[in-house]
Design goal:
single chain, alpha+beta, Heat Shock Protein 90, Actin, Chain A, domain 4, 2 domains, 9 strands, 26% strand, flat, PdaC
């Protein structure tokens, strides 16, 4: 009798754990009613389903990132993606009302995709293109990393056991990849590190091929140079990561 009761309790526990940790997604599409010569907004991102903490963490992080991307007016108090979309269109209309001959329609395209997931970590990449006037728009890439066990978003510094040690290791790889002599300053070949010293990019994410470091255009080089990308295999990166990945 005791063995049957124990077996039943184990089964209930396993079902409860699986239900709690279950993580599924659907595609969330948000767009405005665009017309010819009108400001357009198009958003397609993964939405985590289920009433679990991890889903809430992921959805809030994506929402906050998209609101920030669409925030042209720093006084905007949008609390949702839909609200940020409406504010983006409203800001254009107000500007167009003041300068109708100079204001080209604005555009915002944001696409999110899951680029890595295992039992411990999840990484979502947000690609965006925002045009709010001028010669050209600007594209950005954001990498959002989540600890699936602790159910929290990971800031860049939280990825590493020791960020300074990882930075020193990465500089060696960077110099080799970009042909920067080891005995020369980091900007000697035309890079534009603001402090004249190597630093890590704002965007770092897990991928199937290794840890990806993504320098945006303008971050360390000219816009014409495009992004600078390093991928460090997990065989090397795991020495520095708090959450290691089997190669």
């Amino acid at each position: 009798m005791k063995s049957k009761l124990l077996y039943l309790l184990i089964c209930i526990s396993l079902v409860a754990c699986n239900t709690e940790e279950s993580l599924t997604f659907e595609t969330l599409n948000i767009s405005n009613d665009a017309c010819e010569n009108c400001t357009s907004v198009s958003i397609e991102i993964p939405k985590a389903l289920g009433q679990i903490k991890l889903s809430e963490t992921i959805n809030i992080a994506l929402q906050e990132e998209i609101i920030a991307l669409l925030n042209f007016d720093e006084e905007s108090n949008a609390q949702t993606i839909e609200g940020a979309t409406e504010a983006f269109v409203k800001d254009y209309k107000e500007l167009n009302g003041k300068y109708p001959e100079e204001s080209m329609p604005w555009e915002a395209k944001i696409n999110g995709s899951i680029i890595f997931e295992n039992k411990d970590v999840l990484t979502i990449k947000l690609e965006s293109y925002i045009y709010t006037g001028g010669a050209h728009g600007y594209g950005t890439n954001r990498f959002l990393n989540f600890d699936k066990i602790k159910k929290v978003e990971l800031d860049r510094q939280e990825l590493f056991k020791n960020e300074d040690e990882f930075k020193a290791f990465t500089e060696t790889i960077f110099r080799k990849q970009e042909d920067v002599p080891a005995d020369a300053t980091i900007n000697s070949t035309g890079f534009m590190f603001e402090t004249e010293r190597f630093y890590l990019p704002e965007n770092i994410g897990y991928t199937d091929k290794g840890l990806l470091l993504f320098y945006e255009p303008y971050e360390i080089a000219s816009f014409a140079d495009g992004p600078i990308i390093l991928t460090i295999p997990y065989n090397d990166a795991n020495n520095f990561l708090k959450i290691s990945v089997m190669p």
